[in-house]
Amino acid sequence: ALLDGHRAVGQRGKSSLPHARERTLIAVKPDGVQRRLIGQIIQRFEQRGFKLVGMKMLQVSEDLLSQHYSELRAKPFYPSLLYYMTSGPVVVMVWEGHNVVQTSRTMVGTTNPTEAQPGTVRGDFSTHVSRNVVHASDSLEGAKREIQLWFQGQELLNWDCCDQKSISE
Ligand code: ADP
């Protein structure tokens, strides 16, 4: 039932619409919150044309983090990563839109800020890989997994953005 509005548009012959409903998980990490960058980061995603469908501020548990970063458990920096990510609150968001996973990675910049292009979040706001301000899911499957991990279904809102048709078709 939640998809009815979109199906109605789809019936007009556009097949790319489900793609416009792609979702990704973005988090402002504790250093980003401490440095008062939440607003600037949200602004970048809004102005790019993505739709915010979920957002909350929380103190992350080690349990959630160990699931989120399960692939990194064997890395030497893993203990310090857990310490960093639990050092203060994070703001976690779900953004929706055409190719949002890949576009967000481009907007966020490379993992190591030394190589991050100016104009990206990391390229504008960070210098060190261990304090890189923001998280963005790195694949469609990763995004699905992370969204399920961080959010309950009812915390994500299906809502119509009045400018959606001007932004993607
Ligand atoms: P990304 O966050 O760009 O997807 P990874 O999944 O490889 O990158 O790593 C997750 C996070 O772990 C990074 O964002 C960063 O905070 C931290 N990290 C990665 N590599 C290092 C490193 N060599 N030293 C310290 N922290 C690191």
Write a brief caption for the model:
By secondary structure, this protein is α+β, with helices and mostly antiparallel strands.
Describe this structure in words.
With 169 residues, the protein is α+β, with helices and mostly antiparallel strands. Helices cover 42% and strands 14% of the residues. A four-stranded antiparallel β-sheet has the order 2-3-1-4. The radius of gyration is 17 Å and the shape is globular. Bound molecules: adenosine-5'-diphosphate.
Name the CATH superfamily classification. Nucleoside diphosphate kinase-like domain
The ligands bound in this entry are:
adenosine-5'-diphosphate
Taken as a percent bin, the fraction of beta residues is 5-15%
* Unreliable segments of 5+ consecutive residues: 1-16
Silhouette? globular
Q: What's the total number of strands?
A: 4
Terminal-residue CA separation: 21 Å
Q: Into which percent range does the helicity of residues fall? A: 40-55%
- Give the biggest sheet: 4 strands, antiparallel
The tally of structural domains comes to 1
Return the CATH topology. Answer: Alpha-Beta Plaits
CATH architectural grouping: 2-Layer Sandwich
* Helix/strand order, N-terminal first: HHEHHEHHEHHEHH
Rg, please? 17 Å
Number of helices: 10
Mean of pLDDT: 91
**Derived structural class:** alpha+beta
Arrangement of strands in the largest sheet: 2-3-1-4
Binding site for ATP: 29, 77, 105, 111, 122, 132
Subcellular location: Cell projection, Lamellipodium; Cell projection, Ruffle; Cytoplasm; Mitochondrion intermembrane space
Membrane topology: Peripheral membrane protein
Domain Nucleoside diphosphate kinase-like: 21-158
